[in-house]
Amino acid sequence: MEGLKLRFDLKSFVIFLLIFLVEVFIALFVKDRFIRPYGGDILVVMLMYFFFKSFMQVKPLWLVIGVVVFAYLVEIGQYFQLVEVLGVQDNKVLRTVIGSSFSWGDMVCYTIGGIICYFIDRKKTNKDVATT
């Protein structure tokens, strides 16, 4: 495995910021039963992916695996009521970030978000290789 290279990629950071704004919009204004719970979970993986991609150069597959595994671990923490274990159930920000209810549907959404990121970046990476 190649070493991790740190860098700053403006394009990835702009994508991260745009996804962040969409997530904030969804959190504040969307009160439905599809986009908020499912679209938001798909986008959160994409948000993390492009955030990390902004600062490190790593193969898309490895980054997707890392981000999706992290999302799974957070969800497993919800299953084991991590918010209560840590005693932060009264902290609205931490409770929102960590979450408080486990869902298999969330796990599926994280996987879908990871797959989307992989195919977007894999396609771009293959195009970059073909043009050099």
Strands, count? 2
Radius of gyration: 16 Å
The computed structural class is mainly alpha
Helix content: over 70%
Which stretches of 5+ consecutive residues score pLDDT under 50? Answer: none
Mean pLDDT: 89
Distance from N terminus to C terminus (CA atoms, Å) equals 23 Å
Number of helices: 6
Q: Strands of the biggest beta sheet: in what spatial order?
A: 1-2
Largest sheet: 2 strands, antiparallel
List SSEs in N-to-C order: EHHEHHHH
Query: What spatial form do the alpha-carbon principal axes imply?
Result: globular
What fraction of residues sit in β-strands?
Answer: under 5%
- The number of distinct structural domains comes to 1
Characterize the structure shown:
- There is one protein chain.
- The chain is mainly alpha-helical and 132 residues long.
- The chain has one domain (7-131).
- 77% of the residues lie in helices and 3% in strands.
- The chain contains 6 helices and 2 strands, in the order βααβαααα.
- The chain has helices at residues 10-29, 35-55, 60-79, 82-86, 92-98, 104-131; strands at 5-6, 56-57.
- A two-stranded antiparallel ribbon has the order 1-2.
- The longest helix has 28 residues, at 104-131.
- The chain is globular and about 40 Å long.
- The two termini are 23 Å apart.
- The mean pLDDT is 89.
